[in-house]
Amino acid sequence: MEATKKGFDIKKFMSDNAMWFVLIVLAILLTIVRPAFFTVANLTTLVSSESVKGIITCGVCWCILSAGIDLGPGAVAALSAVVSASLAQQADLPTRLIGLHLPAILCIAVAMIIGGIVGIICGWLVACTHIHPFIATLGSQLICRALAKMYSSSPVSNLDQSFRNFAVFKVAGIPMVVFIFLIVFIISWFMMTQCRFGKNIFAIGGNRQAARVAGINVEKNLILTYMWCGLMAGLAGAMLAARTGSADPSTNGLQYEFDAIAAATIGGTSQTGGICKMSGVMSGILILGIINNGLVLLGANDNLTQVIKGLIIVVSVVVDMRKNAVRT
Amino acid sequence: MSEEYILEMHDIVKEFPGVRALKGVQLKVRPGTVHTLMGENGAGKSTLMKCLIGIQPCTSGKIIFNGQEVEFKSPLQAMNAGITMIHQELSPVPDRTVCENLWLGRFPMKNKLMCDHKRARQEAIDLFQKWKLALNPDDMMRDLTVAQQQMVEIAKAVSYDTKVVIMDEPTSALTETEVEHLFDIIADLKSKNVAIIYISHKMEEIFRISDDISVFRDGEYVGTDRAANLNVDKVVEMMVGRQVGNMFPKVDCPIGDVILEVKDLASGKSFEHVSFQVHKGEIFGFAGLVGAGRTEIVETIFGMRKKTAGQIFINGKEVNIKSPEDAIANSIGLLTEDRRGNGIFGLLDITDNTVMASLKNYGFPQNHKKMEADAVKWNQAMRTKTPSMRQRIMNLSGGNQQKVLLARWLLLDPDILIVDEPTRGIDVGAKAEIHSILTKLAGEGKAILMISSEMPEVSGMADRILVMYEGHMMGIVSRNRDGGDPYDSQELLTYAHGEKNDFAAAN
To answer: For B144, which residue in chain A has the nearest alpha carbon?
Structure first.
């Protein structure tokens, strides 16, 4: 046991970072088949189009880590997208949905507050009423999607440029949404590895009873987890509206939660809780991005993309479970 | 007077809806001593401890700790005050490191926001050194043995300025050397004036380490005395409230033909070159240390594990058992070691649990009347104590669960019954009953294969004992039938530690 501790364990490194190697192999293969893949323009498109889902993933992976799940983020994003968009419509637009016009930053704040409130409610349901997170968040998904459609039956467009800039303004050729995703990612990483909150969630996901006995306030921490996930969904909604310039209550964020769960899972987050690495989550986000982007470059149709995504998720979980089985 | 005790509990009453689990019990613990709590399962020992550390509040009563009246609302409060509990079901977070488990819920901080990983690691190392614990803070909890996980729990306990450590059945999953190490640690704790409240069913170790013994029965306090003034018979009598007859009611019965023969059996690296014959009417014991390969052998015979070499013969015919289904078809039954894990269906009732292995016999649609009747019949034969057959099995005590599982296999009427640790975690009364059931079955001509980590149990029950060491057969010893001790326990131990090997040439 002591002997193997020292030195660099190449096998462990490979197995810990397996998905990054998959990512590199995929990228190389694509570059060979379609040289257009490995261009600055295409990679920028790839990353910026995955950023919104990436933000959601940074929230959902926490719920999975806590041995739960959140099915709500896509619908929550749609709700916060329409609400924030309605507040960010051009001030002089005659067809404004509502009279109030807020500065862009406040529109984003409103979006996040909506998500946060939904998250707190879900977290409370999960932590205090002990209903299964699957059910609690299925409820929030249905309700939020319906609320979004009730708020506006048609897409909300003609958004203020100051609002849109939060997603589309380019710094060094890279749109803001990418930076916002990266900031969110770093905050998530920091909380997970450097803060006691992260350690508490690892403990709750790994062994809820042990966490309770160790004096961790399980209820409070679970509510905070779902609140964080909601905040991310709200932010993603605002980014979605800002990026595309309109918010559509029925299509915005549709099935984003599944892509987020898939990305987290591919990245090695354990469905039974207690295991998650943000670097893995990033690899999952990028792998899904490459698949989406690559299949478009290859001219494959959307259904084939879904088939391949489905296969990758299942295979990655099988591989992950075998990895864990060897250790026990 | 009260200065003499570090902890006093007076008139503790705990009521659950409909049940009075503790009926006004007391406990007085002297500092720097090992105080053992004894009693059958359900006597209230664990409940009393849960009341003490605030997992469950007690309904009424007074707790005086360190001269002050206290009432802990949570385990954390109790820990901060200096009382820690090492739970029977260990509570690690498997996918985190030893270091993180040690500081669970109270990780050292650099500032309000950030954790101090360097300090956490250093303090862990210092703590392990101070208490001579062979632990590496960077190891994953999952990769540790049960004994090492327990050491982490102990390290956690002593890292608080602890005055009382509660250990609930700490040795139930330890090997003998690990137990010795635990006892060293306990002695160390005692020398630092820490009191230990020790819960265990194992008489031998209790008399070895206890200073005081308190006995409980059915939620009532029976009495406390110095261990020196007590002996096994007295304690058992206090626990059961009556004298228990023979713990090992072994009856010699005629040994019949060979029913099971195993030749050169192996399963991967778990065990190799295992050959033996079992006769009708025989109780064939397996002895050895934890990890010697005993469970693996019977799992292979039962088809739960892949056979990589060797042959199995039943009644002289070679059989190819690939799954438990095949094994049952060949009239083999296996009462598994892990009752909760792969024995009971906790949420199902006693009837369902009893008939679960024989569902094929109840036709289509399933004949529920017959099921019920069979379940009643066999559970009566096993003397299962339950308010009704519709009771969920998880509400029964361990001993009664085991009886239901025995009933499950007897309903199938197997010719070969394998029992793996049949009395682990079961109180003495039920233990003696299960032993007498096994003897009776052997008397009916069934072959019984029995694994037990408790030497007295194997040597008390078995006609022959196969001793294993690290996956290899060391010897097969026959019962001494002319009075006196049935086995030379010293000899069994030398086999079990691999110091004597009758099969060295064969291996």
So the answer is: A328
CB A77 within 8 A of CB A257: no
Which of B53, B72, B96, B104 is the best mutation test for A, with the most CBs of A within 10 A? Answer: B104
Overall fold of domain B244-331+414-507: Rossmann fold (3.40.50)
**B106 chain-A contacts, CB cut-off 8 A:** 214-215
Specify the higher pLDDT residue, B250 or A136: A136
If you classify domain A35-327 with CATH, what class do you get? mainly alpha
Q: What ipTM was predicted for this assembly?
A: 0.79
Residue B97 has a CB neighbour count (10 Å cut-off) of 19
Cβ-Cβ contacts under 8 Å, A3 against chain B = none
Q: What is the average per-residue pLDDT within B424-442?
A: 85
Query: Token pair of A26, please?
Result: 């995929």
Question: What is the topology classification, in CATH, of domain B2-92+144-240?
Answer: Rossmann fold (3.40.50)
Is there a common fold for B2-92+144-240 and B244-331+414-507?
yes
Where are the domains positioned within chain B? 2-92+144-240, 244-331+414-507, 350-409
- Say how many residues make up chain B: 507
CB B313 within 8 A of CB B301: no
Of A200, A207, A275, the CB nearest to B91: A207
State the Cα–Cα distance between residues B336 and B299, nearest whole angstrom: 9
**If you average pLDDT over every residue of chain B, what do you get?**
87
Contact A5 B75 (CB under 8 A): no
* CB spacing of A213 vs B109 below 8 angstroms: no
Tens-place pLDDT, residues B350-404: 999 999 888 888 888 888 899 999 999 999 988 888 888 888 888 887 888 889 9
